[in-house]
Amino acid sequence: MRIVDYIMQGGAIMYILLIFNIIGFAIMISKAFLFNKEIKNDSDITQEISKRMKRESGDKESGAMIELTRQYLSEYIMGIEKGLNTVRIIATVSPLLGLLGTVIGVLVAFNVMSQTGLNNPASFAQGISMALITTVGGLIVAIPHFIGHNYLIGLLDKLEARLEKKILMEVLA
Length: 173
Fold this sequence. Notes:
By secondary structure, the chain is mainly α. The protein has 6 helices and no strands. It has one domain. It starts with a helix and ends with a helix.
């Protein structure tokens, strides 16, 4: 059986999962490239934030400078972090959609059984098949998105730590 057949057999839930999968992978790939680019070009970002701090800080004490640095860095990180929440939502909702498909498939199977009895096992099996396919589909979408989200959060934490260290060294020097 081809993947397209599985998607068609899973019904509307599988189409939703397919759309989620495409959106999630597009976000994860773009963010992976962005974060790696930002990690390689951390000197430019450091200089930009340091210049901004020196312009706006005046003659503040070092404790205030550290807090101001963290505030500017937090704003920057929030800006490049946009979209990661969507990946987390996809990772969370996909198994629930798979479970919803499971319930719908079992419901269809029992409706067929109540109308025709067990005289037509093929139609009964179709509902059970839908139930199993949507369960698998939900897990297939959720697992890589969960892993990807955690990996990207790790990259973002690495970038934030490197930038904070470099900015503080430059500003306090």
